[in-house]
Amino acid sequence: MIRFEHVTKRYADGTTAVDDLSFEVAEGELVTLVGPSGCGKTTTMKMVNRLIEPTEGRIFLDGDDISTVDPVDLRRRIGYVIQQVGLFPHKTVLENTATVPHLLGWKRGKGRERAAELLDLVGLDPSVYGDRYPEQLSGGQRQRVGVARALAADPPVLLMDEPFGAVDPVVRERLQNEFLKLQAQVRKTVLFVTHDIEEAVRLGDRIAVYGQGRIEQFDSPATVLGAPATPYVADFVGADRGLKRLSVTPIEESDLDQPPVVHLDDPLATATERLRAEGARWAVVLDGRDNLHGWIPADATADATAEGTVREYARRMEAWLPLGAPLKQAFATMLQHDAGWIAVIDKESEGRFLGVLTPARLHEALRRSIDADAQDVPRAEVAVETVATA
User: Fold this and answer.
1) CB-based contacts of 281: which residues, under 8 Å, 6+ apart?
2) Burial class of residue 352 (count of CB atoms within 10 Å of its CB; 0-12, 13-18, 19+)
3) pLDDT at 385 over 70
4) CA 278 to chain centre
5) Tens digit of pLDDT for each residue in 70-86?
6) Nearest to 150 by CA among 97, 203, 90
7) Per-residue confidence at 231, pLDDT binned at 50, 70, 90?
8) N or C: at which end does the chain have fewer Cβ atoms within 10 angstroms?
């Protein structure tokens, strides 16, 4: 969708902002451009919509050389979101969102209908927020309006220049989550500029790590964190890159242990026998459809003469996640609930139990992920040596 071919931007004073840049962004891909201030990230982005013209090289958008396209027409094909949002203070939220459709000559009713649809998509009820003015919104709400406005004419490409940089960390994380959900629905081709490696890792399908005017590494977040291409990249992503990699490494079935399992309506004696047979201190409790219900500790079944069913002794399970959740979320869930393990369920079902993830298995999963990238094989095929197996 976007292709740079040997693009250089050199200013009259001799400063080279971007030097011989070549890369491609596939349709529907979100690429984050990350690096320190002044490294050429924003210059790269602004050359895509011709706010800055390259000195050398060519840039293509959906096969068209953008130097041959009228700049105004080009910009109407591209959504643009900046840190300070840039909403018109004298226009309502609905009018701001409908700006580009109106410029494109859409009928007023159609433009407002599209604006209301987009506001709802970004979590702002148009019946509540549509008639408000930007000054009546919080920073996070204004940022959402900016995203809705950029999407209003359904552009194939979205340029985002540190869009969440002006809000506090809590709101920023919330906006990142909402944007990921939105991107999963609209699948735009996105160039996203940030100076924050954690934001780049969390959002990007691929990351372009900038040095001074050049891309030092262009790869998946996991590879950038697990196998930095240069000492510069290793230093930039930080010595804690292993921890950062937790956020881009999903839980897989091969990571899970299989503990003893009982059902709600099993006699308590059945649970007792199973726990003793396997020498376990607890068992997972499922309902009649094998969906996760909770767990039962061994001490609840210690009395061999106890009667009743598992249901009467089962405890609710709060520490659980769906398959595919990042290891970072798994680790945070363990800490939040002071849990020695978390249950993992099938996210496509109502809660079918798949297994449990322990701290040891979490560590193995991270190590296997790094080794799998290095060996270019699926993670499940990688064996790791642990203290237990050494």
Assistant:
1) 275, 297, 298
2) middle
3) no
4) 39
5) 998 898 889 888 876 67
6) 97
7) very high
8) C
Hunting for tokens 């971007």 — which residue is that?
18
Question: Which pLDDT band, with edges at 50, 70 and 90, does 43 fall under?
Answer: very high
CATH number of 253-365: 3.10.580.10
Give the span between the Cα atoms of 311 and 179, in whole angstroms.
Answer: 41
C-alpha angle 19-204-381 in degrees, rounded to nearest 5? 110
Which residue has 């130097």 as its token pair?
A: 67
**Rounded Cα gap, residues 382 and 143, in angstroms:** 43
Two structure tokens written together for 307: 């009667």
314-322, Cβ contacts within 8 angstroms, sequence gap of 24 or more:
314/264, 314/285, 317/284, 317/285, 317/292, 317/293, 317/343, 319/343, 320/292, 320/344, 320/345, 321/251, 321/345, 321/357, 322/346, 322/347
Structure tokens at 239: 């010595």
How far is Cα 184 from Cα 186, in angstroms, rounded to an integer?
6
Amino acid at residue number 210: Y
User: Which part of the chain has CATH 3.40.50.300?
Assistant: 2-247
Domain 2-247 class, CATH top level: alpha beta
288 backbone dihedrals φ, ψ, rounded to 5°: -65, -15
Q: What are the start and end residues of each CATH 3.10.580.10 domain in the chain?
A: 253-365
pTM: 0.74
